[in-house]
Design brief:
Length: 494
């Protein structure tokens, strides 16, 4: 349960979960700030940056540091009532809308962009915490949270669309849904780029006529590209979703129609479009979820650059992981390679944020998985860690690979393992899920010692201790010494 006096949890999460590189940042001042004051400064900076990006990076770094300076100030929320929390949630959401608007003046290589996205993600974590706290205090939440449906504060709607968007039933053809799943593979996709995000999937909404059923076009690792009723996406029970709408609704509709028609035709021909493990958005022979969006808009706007305006890059430290995952990149090319990570869509100024939804009951679990994956990627980058599947996983992967090609049984597993997934990729996802779950169990066990959610600093202390303890067991175990088997280092080690 979330307690009211743990602001340190909130703001430390900005530094540890907001972006992998933020551990190098330090507060610039000990002067006490309030969240309301910082939000006012963000509004003011957003207006100024629309005119000139000069000095932008320094300004947003300062704002980020002011948020950091609030870490541990438990008294800040001690007497906050529901009305005040509501005001803070609304203010933060509006600040993010202003911040997004300011990106219209940015170029793709702007030094300020990373700093702006850090503050943007930081504000979202502020809202996460306040929404969880507010729903606990009010004790009036629904028995079940339905994706993109409900009320304030877990459904936030851009004031511009307040009269026309009440729930997922008000989506329009051409809308884009950015979401986050619950699996460790979702957490990995969300945090795989240098700009790590809180999202892992994109869906393109399509509606043939105003009277037609709302549909989606999506791509999944397990089954490739599919079309399905929108309600199937809603029923997948994601932890968070955001709706974005392109500035020209007709172009957006036609872009969505071209992809819906293409995918539907491939399904009717029983061929299907395979999942693009290489994440190459410029070659749409195969498709991954974000590529469905970029390919659709490229069909309509062939003379423009591929969407989105700002794209992600990879850290060289995770090169072996990327290669095993199927991304064809080398030590020489990784610095220049751009990908369309699902979360990139939120910073394209041509798409307006229409509405944002969260499941308050899943926020804490999502944060833990974010922190765990950040810890895993940091060890890949700094300590040359990599996944190493077990002999059993190797045998299981090879067996599944063969069964997927055996006519008698393949129909039973075709929706779990695509034909174009290699045994190495199968082993990677098996190992990642196994390692993630084992570490998650350890953090959960440690959390029982607290009467509140652990702060990110406490979580990382548990992770560091667990890594060191398990690594010592691993080293002795590999030497043949009579010790207990390490928990996860046989599957993930330097």
């Amino acid at each position: 349960m979330i307690k009211k006096n743990h602001l340190g949890f909130l703001f430390l999460s900005l530094s540890l979960a907001g972006c992998a590189s933020s551990s190098n940042r330090h507060p610039s001042s000990d002067d006490r700030e309030t969240l309301a004051n910082i939000i006012d400064e963000i509004h003011d900076s957003s207006k100024k940056q629309q005119g000139s990006p000069a000095g932008c990076k320094d300004k947003y770094d300062q704002l980020y540091n002011k948020l950091f300076n609030l870490a541990g100030d438990a008294a800040y929320l001690e007497f906050m009532d529901i009305k005040t929390m509501d005001e803070e949630i609304k203010s933060s959401f509006l600040a993010r809308i202003d911040l997004k608007e300011s990106l219209k003046s940015f170029s793709a290589d702007s030094e300020c962009l990373r700093s702006v996205t850090d503050v943007f993600k930081g504000l979202r974590y502020v809202e996460d915490y306040l929404i969880e706290l507010r729903m606990e205090k009010s004790a009036s939440g629904p028995s079940e949270y339905v994706d993109l449906k409900g009320e304030f504060p877990y459904l936030l709607v851009n004031p511009k669309y307040s009269s026309e968007f009440k729930s997922y039933e008000d989506l329009k053809s051409g809308d884009v849904i950015l979401s986050r799943g619950n699996a460790f593979s979702s957490a990995a996709i969300a945090r795989i780029g240098i700009n790590d995000y809180q999202f892992s999937h994109l869906a393109f909404v399509y509606q043939e006529t105003a009277a037609s059923e709302l549909m989606t076009t999506e791509a999944f690792i397990e089954i490739g590209s599919v079309t399905a009723p929108l309600i199937d996406h809603i029923n997948s029970k994601n932890s968070r979703s955001v709706v974005y709408r392109y500035q020209d609704p007709q172009i957006a509709h036609e872009a969505s129609k071209t992809m819906y028609d293409r995918v539907e035709a491939s399904l009717q021909n029983k061929k299907g479009i395979e999942y693009d493990f290489d994440m190459d958005f410029k070659d749409n022979t195969k498709l991954y979820c974000a590529e469905i969006i970029s390919s659709g808009f490229k069909n309509m706007l062939p003379d423009e650059d591929y969407f989105p305006m700002f794209k992600s890059k990879f850290s060289p430290g995770i090169l072996p992981f990327l290669n095993t995952m199927g991304i064809e990149v080398t030590k020489e090319s990784i610095g220049e390679l751009e990908i369309f990570a699902p979360g990139d869509i939120q910073f394209d100024p041509r798409f307006e944020l229409v509405a944002e939804w969260r499941n308050p009951r899943k926020m804490e679990e999502g944060r833990l998985k974010d922190f765990i994956l950040t810890a895993l990627f940091q060890r890949m980058e700094k300590e040359n860690y990599n996944f190493d599947s077990s002999l059993k996983m190797d045998a299981d992967a090879k067996a599944l690979w063969l069964l997927r090609r055996t006519p008698v049984v393949r129909k039973f597993i075709q929706n779990k393992f695509p034909l174009n997934m290699t045994t190495s990729q199968l082993e990677l996802f098996m190992a990642m899920d196994k390692v993630g779950e084992e570490i998650y169990k350890e953090v959960e066990k440690a959390s029982l010692e607290f009467d509140r959610p652990m702060t990110p600093k406490e979580i990382y202390a548990v992770l560091d201790h667990f890594f060191k303890q398990d690594f010592e067991l691993y080293k002795r175990y590999k030497k043949g010494q009579d010790v207990m088997k390490p928990t996860f280092h046989l599957l993930f080690h330097p």
